[in-house]
Amino acid sequence: MSRVPLRPLARILEARRKGENPDAIERENIRLRHEEMRDRARQSAEGRLLVLGVLFFCGFALVGARMGLMAATVPEEPRSAVSTSEITAQRADIVDRNGKILATNLRTHSLYAQPPQMVDKLRAARELVRIFPDLDEEKLVEQFTGKRKFIWIKKVLSPEQQQQVHDIGEPGLMFGPREMRLYPNGALAAHILGGYGFGREGVYAAEVIGTAGVEKAFDDFLRDPAENGRPLELSLDLTIQAALEEILHGGMTLMNAKGAAGVLMDAMTGEVVAMASLPDFDPNDRPVPLTKGDASDSPLFNRAVQGVYELGSTFKIFAIAQAMELGLVGADTMVDADAPMKWGKFTIKEFRNHNYGPLLSVTDVIVKSSNVGTAKIALQIGKKRQQEFLAELGFFDPTPVELFEAPYAKPLTPKNWSDIHTITVSYGHGMSASPLHLAAAYATIVNGGTRVEPTLLKRAYRVPGKRVVSPETSAAARRMLREVVTRGTASFGEVRGYAVGGKTGTADKPRPRGGYYDDKVIATFASVFPAHDPKYVLIVTLDEPVETSGDKPRRTAGWTAVPVAAEIVRRTAPLLGLAPEIEPLAALELSGG
Amino acid sequence: MRTFAFVLSIMAVMGLAFWAYSENYKTQHALGEVEDLRHEIGYLRETRAVLKAEWAYLNRPDRLRDLVGMNFQKLGLVPLSPQQFGRVEQIAYPQPEPEPEPDILNPVSVSAILPADTHIDTEELEP
What we know:
The complex is a heterodimer.
Chain A: H1 9-18, H2 22-72, E1 94-95, E2 101-113, H3 121-131, H4 137-145, E3 151-157, H5 159-168, E4 173-182, H6 190-193, E5 195-201, E6 206-212, H7 213-217, H8 219-223, E7 232-233, H9 238-254, E8 259-266, E9 272-278, E10 309-310, H10 316-325, E11 334-336, E12 341-343, E13 346-348, E14 359-361, H11 362-367, H12 371-381, H13 383-392, H14 419-426, E15 432-433, H15 435-446, H16 471-487, E16 501-510, E17 516-529, E18 536-543, H17 561-575, H18 585-591
Parallel strand pairs in A: 1-7
Antiparallel strand pairs in A: 1-2, 2-3, 2-4, 5-6, 8-9, 8-18, 10-15, 11-14, 12-13, 16-17, 17-18
Helix pairs in contact in A: 3-4, 3-5, 9-17, 10-12, 10-16, 12-14, 16-18
Chain B: H1 2-58, H2 61-70, H3 72-75, H4 109-113, H5 122-125
């Protein structure tokens, strides 16, 4: 680069010649040179700024583009992640205590229509009605030809139905995958399992939700992905349940009853091994609840849990056990049982106006089922202590069993508990409870005296409950119950080898408008077997039974519920793994008299 | 020398690029395989669930009861009853099998059966 001299000689000489100041030339040149330097510096600074600007722009553009890209992309499952969890069904299975399936899932399809894509709408409607007779052709045609673009036709299809629909060849009829609940055993344990329905529905999936029973009570557990499809293990035994239902059904038919309930419970743990209520229903095709009339007439009604009945004389053992526990009486104490008994304006009578008195041993009060004897003992106990004892047995609260319906089945107790209520409740009138309540209370009394809470879940170990009565009282109560069968009102209950002990109860059914029916009863048999080594408690309740083999119709539990219960013991005890045993002599000797 | 280093490093970069490329494709392939397997597992699980449901359906007590009734002539199955329990004492103790008659009755004659050149080391035989 050529530098212009500050004092070019030619111009200096010329300026000197003209008499001008040559310094002006130098200054002029210095100024020009400075201007030139300033321009260059500015240019390079501008260049740098431009580069920097471009860099920043690129940087921001990159970040922005990345953000946009991430926001716009569809999330994708990581392909490389090692997943240890299984791909499981959306709802876990329900199994019995031996792992046999009670409820499982099946993949099927739902059927929907998209009318804009349909070719021959009338023919499609006609063909669909041919496959599904429950559909209405006119309504289908109306829907297909209307403005709607999407119509659900069937929620679940069987593979055969799907093939038939496919064979119609209508492009507007489409299938969406669906998971449905299957109860392979049909009506077995229907009241316990409950039923299912669909929650939120989409084309590709639908929520399967429980609508009743354990399906609803354990809805969260069954649908919890964290449980990884772990099945819900119930305490039920499928085989025992089937036997119980079969015999109960036979008994109900034979005894002309309109309903029946049975509860078989482990006396130690409170696990319900089998529980049935008849009439029943198929949970695969759950009927709609009754909208009018008595809900208890619906097959959906669970008599064993929801049905609260006056359970009659089966309650007597509670008063007796409490009196023995308090030391008021012993098994052989003679008590006043002179019938009829007057209490204020009320008269307490025995069955068919018998008089078992004037004196009766406490054991015979139970064996002969004396109302008066029990009433006198109950009066000795007093209403406060009686209520406390019944509360300890669980008669004042709904059962804690794991069914959706259970919390709503609260026992009916007298509002103002007066002495007459103390008397009537002692022999099971004026207070209503469910057969399951009774089962838990009997288990508590006979198992050695510790509180039992009914459960439908398989228990790995036994948690001893709170002590309610002493082991001695429990043993004495069991001996009394055994004698009811050997020489009392439940003589049909004897099953050789299983030492059944129990108490009958026959209660008149209350009329809806007050008072009691003369010819409608609830017959109950509450039993324990074997009585000397209590393993199981069995409650059988028949609704309005009548046994007609004799001259007069017989309605007492001894003639109706007891034979059914005995047959249940005969059939289920071997299945429960109980070998028949000869009763130990000690039990017989102690109870003699 | 510098040129040589240049060429060498360029070749190394190209080699590494080729290796990374092939590894990438191998990984993609393996991932695809895993995905296929997972699909297959899911499908098999589903099939198993259907089979289990069918097995439970075929074994439902109602059906078994009907089958027992239908085949009573052939099988004669009846419900389990208390009489069918037995005690261990009720079963006869099995008689021991009679021992087979030994071919050689006299132990002394055993040595006579042995070939002549068999050498029996008495030292070894002694405990």
